[in-house]
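Appendix B. Chain record.
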Amino acid sequence: MTFPRSLAAVVDRDPEQALPCHLVDPDLFFAESPVDVERAKALCIDCPLRATCLAEALARREPWGVWGGELVLQGVVVPRKRPRGRPRKSDVAA
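C-alpha cells predicted for this chain:
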C-alpha cells in the first residue's frame, strides 16, 4: 500500500526541489486581488504535492490562502475570491 507523500518529508528530503510555491513570492498565495489568487491557483496545477498540500491545509484548518490549488478561507475550500467592498446595486436582485 502506498501513502501520500508528506509535504514536510519531501521538502526535508530534497530542499532544492523546485515546487511551484518555492519559485515565486509567497505573498502571491495570500493575495487580496482575485486576479492574483487565480494566478496562484494556476501555479499549483502541475505540482506533484497538490493533493497533499490541500489535505494538510484542511487538516490544520488554515485560516486563508491558496493551498493545493484551491482557495481556503477559515479552513474551508471556496470557489473564488470575491473583490473587497459591497456589490454593485445593479448586481443585487430587487
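Further analysis of this model is presented in Appendix C.
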